[in-house]
Amino acid sequence: MANETTVPTVAPEVFPQVAPEKGMFISLGPQHPSTHGVLRVAITTDGEIVTSAQPDLGYLHRATEKLAEKRTYPQIIVLTDRLDYLAAMTNNWSFCLAVEKMMAVAIPERADYLRIIVGELQRIASHCVFLGTYGIDIGAFTPFLVAFGRERERILDLFEEICGARLTYNYIRIGGVMADAPEGWEAKVRKFVKEMWGHLKEYDTLLTYNPIFMDRTQNIGKMSQEMAIAWGITGPNLRATGFKADVRKDDPYGLYSKISFDIPVGKQGDCWDRYWVRIQEMRESLKIIDQALDQMQPGDTMGKIAKTFRVPVGEGYAHLEAPRGDLGFYIVSDGTPSPYRMHIRPPSFVNLQILQVLLKGWKVSDVIAILGSIDIVLGEVDR
Amino acid sequence: MTAAEILSTIQAKYPGLQEIPKVLGQARGDELYLSVSAAELHALCQFVRFDPGLSFDYLSFVTSVDWKTHFEVVYYLVSTLHKHKLVLKVKVEDRTNPEVPTISTVWPTADWQEREIYDMMGIKFKGHYNLRRILLPDDWEGFPLRKDYAPKPDRYD
Amino acid sequence: MFELGPILSKAFATLSGWVIAHGVPAMGAWIINKSIQVGALVLGVSLVPMVLVYAERKVSAFMQARLGPMNVGPYGIFQTLADGVKLIFKEDVIPIGSDRILHVLAPMVACAPAFVCFAPVPFGKGLVPINLDIGVIFIFAVSGITTIGVLMAGWGSGNKFSMLGGIRGAAQIVSYEIPRVLSVVPVLMFYGTQSLQGIAMAQTGRWHGFLPKWFIFYPVIGQIAFLIFLIASVAETNRVPFDIPEAESELVAGFHTEFSGLKFALFFLAEYAYVFLSSAMAAALFFGGGDGFSAGGIIPSWLWFLGKTFAIVFLFLWFRWTFPRLRVDRLMQFCWQFLLPWSLANIAFAGLAVLLRS
Amino acid sequence: MIEQWAPIVIFGAMSALLIGLSLVVVTARSVFRGAIALAAALGVAAGLFALLGADFVAAGQLLIYVGGIMIIMLFVIMLSQRPLAKLDRQANDQWLWAALFSLAVTCGLIVQFRAVYRGVFFNPEAAPTSASIGRLLLGDMIVPFEAVSLVLLAALVGAVYFGLGKEES
């Protein structure tokens, strides 16, 4: 097209065709056990092979961006809780980062460490849900009740203790966090971290290295690095292709620059790699929590912020590494108490697009394995 | 590359392009902001995507803002190789039939994001292979994120 | 002391004597006796799934760090009963697009053979409902009819997921039937009979005074045969890791997606009855049936038999709550490229062993 | 009395059922229903074998025909037909000739059977037949038995050939 001298890294077959093809048509969802919510995927198959797949969204659309234009900034934090409801902490955090960036307020160090601790706990909780539901997708029921019902429940108990809520926290506020951790909370987190190492070993024997599980997921749904970047894939899905990319390292926010941790990467970007990267990430999160607990000193947890405040005219974009990838908030302010325009860059929505090309050519029974490994939350896809 | 270096690299190829300067007191990140015309957009995107020095291979997001008099489409580009950023802004004056060329042929990730902008703000992306509503029902009237959108009263109003 | 077999045969002899004394012809007495036996068997077979469902819930709960049913009755023992009552009173839905006759008949066709299959099972010494000479083959033959019920359900529901489930089920069951039958052939060759009771009786005795003469303890041949039989039986009963026909995450509920109420309960009943049947067969074929370590002692043979059967049932439950599901093409590959060659090789080994012995 | 009449009654009922099911097979408008009726008819035929004391043949009939061949046939129908498709008459305009031919065959069979008929006998306590069948198949009849398996082998090879040929094109 424009530049003849460059070689496009995006292969032409990457672009999906919308023309309906002949063959058997299967409408997977919106009421199907494996679509993790209300997603519908329209699939046409030629025998066992998928020839086209079109995700159909919007069943959970709640007009968050429009609502935000009518709310004050602190009120919007409540809306962000409902986006990725499995990782509400990082949603709060990302929005607050964007507003704080525009207002240029300083955050007390203790608040920043608390944010890191709850953010990483949230990542573990979210990956626990992934682990459980992916197990169910593959047909193993026990990991679900172990990871979802035992470990995640303990994290939710910790959250309940620190902010009173179990799912929609509204804990991270503009300028700091809602409240300091109650007495003894840090010791409980330490105890949990210690025990979680053992539980992760249990997951490995139960699922990760189970031959049937590996057979179902290895070499299935392979994604190349170029393809992943071109489609804007972020988070564990991108890292599974072997590409070291993590907002916590590339564009450090909070106090992540003071903490040492690794970015686990996969080898070939198949379903098993995507799963394995998440398991490894839980280990890294445990390390981060330990370090943050060590470095945290007593102090204030809220910066100097007026009760009612205005954000200066202008625009700002801040993003962070949510459990599902690069979550960003783009805010345009006209100086009034509510944003003029707020755009959410949702990792699930962007990651989900690749299904259009990723599912093609795989067997029908692999569809579930691939869909589950992308790990989407419909609350964030539809907003 | 710093913002100045990116600007000079781009201006060597497209001398007409101007940076959007930061107004005093305005809140804004330290990314390079460029104003692009709709006609130039596609070629420029091809250039910044495949130029080895710039290599903006990752389109973080595409969005649009309704400024009442005109629309503004915002492209936020990141290079995963050089870790530098670039913001492109396209001004669309025509409110009745706003049109911008698609860049989903450069970054496939723009596919659904452009569809969402079309869905919410009614900006058409010329050359997009599948420009349909994505989140709202196909028979929805109007574009909700426009500032002049008046929701139809339903039975609860 | 507590052997049921002699007591029961005595009781039935007394009954028929009493009936004949009252002027009923011998054939009538025979019919009365058999009716009571069949009634008892059907009742017992219907109760077994209830016990198994409860066991499944409790076993899975303890494997998953939870308690399982606790509310209905002490430790939730009446939960299955309550569920059964619920299923009976549930609305019976027949989808508009379905083939009504097939839809209604399917659960019956799937369930009825499960009851018939228990006829030649030796529940203890002298405790076999009908001692068929072709017992093993009879069970294989009759249980094959269930597959037709599965296919009828898949087709008659008029639902794509059901049909995919039915197709998968048919392919799977027909394939796994072959290694399953072949894995039993060495047993038949060793004992020279097809009667389950005859096989179980032939396994009494001890090697060197302590090791029971069960088929499982024949070196190599016994273990291979049992493993193949166990794996193929899991596949035949559509249980994890071979639950492809009703793969929840892929096919909603497979062939029984459109069934509700009592009709669903019948499919459920059939599944658990077959789990019990396969375990009972394994106990009789490979573990000496009612043969125990204190034969003639305190523990009667029927308790030994039930104990062994439930131990094998536990294996089924354990598999289900541990393994993920195989993919459908891998499933076929496993059957045809692994199980079938090994079961054929095992028959060859067994032939050699029989030749050397004689 | 009852010992004499019961087998006759059971035989009559089963034969009537068999004939009825066979009629359903040829008249059913849905192929699938026809196939199900065929499976049921084969099952009843197994019952007839059992009635005659041929226990092994009855079990074999069930195992191979109902549990094997019929399932494969149903499988093929499910793969090739659409459920809920418009039901159509399954017979074409040659049904009259087919009926006449079947009638002729039936008459021939009746004539033949009359020559060897010795009365219906009901023998539930008959000696097990599997051992003698085994001896026959691997003894006197070994040559035809192996010849039949050769035919099956040829069919398998043919199937593999066609299966491979399809993949190449």
Describe this structure in words.
The complex is a heterotetramer of chains A (383), B (157), C (358) and D (169). With 383 residues, chain A is an alpha+beta fold. Chain A is 46% helix and 12% strand. Chain A has a domain at 73-308 and 362-382: Cytochrome-c3 Hydrogenase, chain B, CATH 1.10.645. A three-stranded antiparallel β-sheet of chain A has the order 1-2-3. Chain A has a three-stranded antiparallel β-sheet with strand order 6-7-8. Chain A is globular and about 65 Å long. The two termini of chain A are 35 Å apart. The relative contact order of chain A is 0.19. Chain B has a single domain (3-126), classed as Beta Polymerase, domain 2, CATH 3.30.460. Helices cover 23% and strands 24% of the residues of chain B. In chain B, the strands form two sheets. A five-stranded mixed β-sheet of chain B has the order 1-2-5-4-3, covered by helices on one side. A two-stranded parallel ribbon of chain B has the order 6-7. Chain B is globular. With 358 residues, chain C is mainly α. Chain C has one domain (93-357). Helix content of chain C is 67%, strand content 1%. Chain C has helices at 4-21, 26-63, 79-89, 100-116, 135-143, 145-156, 160-191, 196-202, 221-236, 248-251, 261-286, 301-320, 328-357, and strands at residues 206-207, 211-212. Chain C has a two-stranded antiparallel ribbon with strand order 1-2. Chain D is mainly alpha-helical and 169 residues long. Chain D has helices at residues 2-27, 31-51, 55-80, 95-116, 130-138, 142-168. The model of chain D has no long low-confidence stretch (mean pLDDT 80). Chains in contact: A-B, A-C, C-D. The interface between A and B is large, with 55 and 45 residues.
Q: Going by CATH, what is the homologous superfamily of the largest domain in chain D?
A: NADH-ubiquinone/plastoquinone oxidoreductase chain 6, subunit NuoJ
Determine the strand fraction of chain A and express it as a percent band.
5-15%
Strand order within the widest beta sheet of chain A: 1-2-3
Going by CATH, the architecture of the largest domain in chain D would be Up-down Bundle
CATH class of the largest domain in chain D: Mainly Alpha
Keywords:
heterotetramer, B: 157 residues, alpha/beta, Beta Polymerase, domain 2, 5-stranded mixed sheet, two-stranded parallel sheet, 3 helices, 23% helix, D: 169 residues, mainly alpha, Four Helix Bundle (Hemerythrin (Met), subunit A), 2 domains, 6 helices
